[in-house]
Write a structure and sequence with these properties.
Layout lengths: L4 E3 L7 E7 L2 H16 L5 E7 L4 H9 L3 E5 L6 H6 L2 H7 L13 H4 L12 E5 L3 E3 L13 E4 L11 E8 L3 H11 L10 H8 L4 E2 L6 E2 L2 H4 L11 E3 L16 H12 L15
Parallel strand pairs: 2-3, 2-5, 3-4, 7-9, 10-11
Antiparallel strand pairs: 1-4, 5-8, 6-11, 7-8
Helix pairs in contact: 1-2, 1-9
């Protein structure tokens, strides 16, 4: 395996769903995600990249779900880059004004996502650890690099930006090396970390339907877009379903669905769930 990655086991096949875990809370999210993927009947590998600070006790449930664990170093970025993207500075320059990120959110960790281009798979579908897969999405392995859904959660004006919570990739060392060269260029600043960088690196990104990455704020901002029968991936952007937060009551059906997966309970068919205007 390439420098910067330490897999706990060999790859089980050419295709994989990959997520990234940087702390114990996101490990909770990843466990629910893995269970949701298993429920779709996929036979692809389930791979969890994790940073070194995640305790083994938090990773153990992910092993129990059959995930391949790959320990992941931070990227070898310069001191200037690290200073520019430090948590206090980046959140001061580009604050989150639409919702609240968890207190443990660390911007530099986000760039570890780029290490998936070092993995020994032919094709990858990346999913953030705060997503659930509600229908089989194996078709995405046949899609080209780079496909992602638009960052739609407030208005139709959001369609010009991509969201990096779900995307297709073709791992290759040459791509990873090119990414590092552009990422840490003199004076580089990536306002929304990996998301801003990936849209810049893949300017001709292919658009996936919003149903392949349905952001939770659509529930109350754009309810006319919400259709449980069509949603394939549900993404808990901003506030997380394992948190107590101010929007929890407004998002209760979504949170209850996540908790069913997280607790290993019977999961209701999405088509039977209430709509946002119920």
């Amino acid at each position: 395996m390439t420098d910067g990655l330490r897999p706990a086991a060999p790859a089980g096949g050419p295709f994989a769903y990959v997520t990234l875990v940087t702390n114990a809370d996101f490990a909770l999210g990843a466990a629910a995600l893995l269970r949701s993927l298993r429920a779709t009947g996929t036979r692809a590998d389930l791979c969890v990249m994790h940073t070194g600070g995640v305790a083994d006790a938090a990773l153990a449930p992910l092993r129990d779900h059959g995930a391949r664990l790959v320990e992941t170093d931070l990227l070898p970025t310069s001191d200037a880059f690290n200073t520019a993207h430090a948590k206090d500075r980046i959140h001061g320059i580009a604050p989150f004004t639409k919702g609240d990120k968890p207190a443990f959110h660390t911007p530099l960790d986000n760039f570890c996502k780029l290490r998936l281009w070092q993995l020994d798979y032919e094709r990858v579908v990346f999913l953030d650890a705060d997503t659930l897969v509600l229908q089989n999405i194996d078709r995405l392995f046949e899609y080209p690099e780079f496909c992602a859904a638009p960052n739609v959660y407030e208005s139709l004006a959001d369609f010009h930006r991509m969201n990096s919570g779900v995307f297709t990739a073709r791992p290759a060392p040459v791509t990873f090396d090119a990414m590092l060269a552009r990422l840490d260029a003199p004076g580089a600043f990536w306002r929304r970390t990996d998301q801003t960088f990936l849209q810049d690196f893949f300017p001709d990104w292919h658009g996936l339907p919003v149903f392949d990455n349905m952001l939770q704020y659509v529930w109350f901002n754009l309810p006319e877009l919400w259709n449980w029968r069509e949603i394939r991936v549900l993404h808990f952007q901003y506030e997380k379903p394992w948190q107590d937060h101010a929007k929890a009551d407004r998002l209760r059906p979504l949170i209850d669905l996540w908790r069913a997966y997280a607790k290993g309970e019977d999961v209701p068919a999405p088509a039977t769930l209430p709509g946002p205007t119920s």
